Amino acid sequence: MNDSSPGEGHVRVVGTAHVSADSVREVEETVREERPDVVAVELDEGRYRQMKGGTPDDIEARDLLRGNTVFQFIAYWMLSYVQSRMGDKFDVKPGADMLAAVETAEDEGLDVALVDRDIQVTIQRFWRRMGTLEKMRMAGDLLFGVADARGVGAVLGIAVGVFLGPLVGLFGGAVGVTDLLLTRTATAAVLGAASAYLLYTVASFSLDGDDAVLAGLGGGAAIGIVVGFGLGLGTGLVSGILGSLGTAIVGSLVIGVLAGVVVGVTAGAVLNAFGLFAPAESDADYEEFDMAELTDGDVVSAMMEEFRRFSPGGAEALIDERDAYIAHQLVALRQSGRHVVAIVGAGHREGIENYLAHPETLPPMESLVGVAEKDGFPWGKLLGFGVTAVFIAFFVLLAMAGVGNERLLTIFGAWFLINGVFAAALAKVAGARWTSALVGGLVAWMTSINPLLAPGWFTGYVELRHTPVNVGDIGKLNELLSDEETPIVDLVGQMFDVPLFKLIMVVAMTNIGSIIASFLFVTYVIPVIASDLGGVAGVANLMFEGARNSADLIWRSLT
C-alpha cells in the first residue's frame, strides 16, 4: 500500500495471524523480497526485549499502591492465556510472526522499528475501559476453560456466601436460624474439615493425587454431615474451643456459603440449559479451523468484531487506540522518506490502512497515551466517600448521644483488632511474609472504611520489596494451566511458587479478610461490646439520639 505524497516514503502493511505458521513464512518472504528501509513490527520495547531473551521489567512496588496494577496483570494474563491456548493447538509459539520479522530484518541488515504502544499502558487502559459486567464475563470465560457454568456459579456462590454469612447471623432468627442450628453447622464444618485432612493424608498413600483429594473431601463431608450435624456429636467440644461468638461466626458463614453455592450452581445449571454460556472450545473446534483462512484479514477481523461486541470499551483500548498509535508511528516514518514494511496483526490491518490513507483523521497522540479516564458517573468514588462518612458519623453521633470516651475507644479498638487479625491471618494463609501480613493488618482498619484503598496493596508493596514479579511469570502460569496430568493439589502448589500468582493471592486474601471482618464487626462484635447499651438496636437508638442532639446544637448556633 502507498498513499504517500510526492517526496515521501511508502508503507506496506502485512496482516498476520499471531499463531499461524503460514504467517511466519509470509513475513520472511515479504521482508526478503521487499528489502525495505525499515521493518516495523507490532511490538513495544518490553515485549521486544522479552522476545529476544531479555528479562521483563519487574512490577515497581510503588505502582502497586496506585490500585489497579494487579488487576491489569490479571487482564493481561487472561488475554495471554487465550492466545497461548490457540498457539498450543496450532503448534506455533504466539508472536512467532513478529520474531520472524525481527530476525529476518537483522539477517538482511535492515532497520527495525517498534511501533506498538507500551503493553502496560494498553492493559491499564483496557482494564479502565471495561465495565464491571464485562470484567466478570472475561473472568468467567477464563474459568470456562476448566469448568462449565455450574462450576463458575459455585465459585461465585462462595464469594456471595462470604457476605451472606454475617447477614444470616444478624437476621437469621427471623427465618428460623436458631442457636442450635448454628452450633451444629459449626460442628459439622470443624469435624468435616479435620476428617477431610486426615482422610486425604491416609488416601494419598494408595491413591493418585486427585483421587485422594476427592476421597478426603467426600469422606470429610459425610462425617461432618452425619456425625456433627445429624447426631450432634462433638458440639460441646467445638463450642468449647470456638466459644459462643466463634461458633456463631463459623455457623453463619457456613450457612451463607452453602446458600450461595446452591444459588450459584442452580443459576449455572439454568444458564447451561438455555445455552446462555457456551463451553470452552474443544480440541475438535480448533481443528476445524483452516489455517489458510485464519491468516486472511477478514476472518481475523471478524474475530476482533466478536470481541468488540463482548466489550466495546475494552476493544477501544485494545484495538482502535492501538490502530491509531501504530498509524502515527508509520506516518512519521513515511514522512521521513523511508520505505517501510509493517508487520501487524490481521485484525489491525484495516484500521491502520484507513489512517494511512487519511492521516488527517488520526486522533491526537496525547489522547492515546497516559491514564485512561472512565466514562460516566464516578459511582466508585461516591461509594468510597459515603462509607468513610458513615464510619465517621458513627462515632460522632455516639459521642453526641453521651457515650463516654472509654466506650468509644473500646469500640474503635475492637474494629482495629478484628480487621487486623482477619486481614493478616488470610494474608499469611496465602503465603505472605510475616512483615507483609503485619503491615496489611495494621492498615486494614483504615482501608476498610474507604473502598478506594485496600490493605492488600500495602501487603503486596512489602512483598514486592523482597520478591520480584514481572510479565514473564504469565508464561509460567500458562504452562501450568495447560498441564492436564499433574494432580490439582500439586498444581496449585506449583502456581503459588510463581511470584505473580502468589502476589495476586496475597493481595486478594488480605482484602477479603478485611471485608469479612467489617461484616463480622457489625454482626457479632458490636452486640457483644455494646450489650449493656442494648446491642445493635440500642446503638442505633443512640445514633438517632446523637443526630437529634446534633441538630439541636446546630439550630441553637444558628438562632
From TrEMBL:
The chain crosses the membrane at residues 152-175, 181-200, 212-233, 245-271, 382-403, 409-430, 437-458, 503-526. Keywords: Membrane, Transmembrane, Transmembrane helix. Pfam families: TraB_PrgY_gumN (PF01963). The keyword ATP-binding does not apply. It comes from Haloferax prahovense (strain DSM 18310 / JCM 13924 / TL6). It comes from the Archaea. This is TraB family protein.
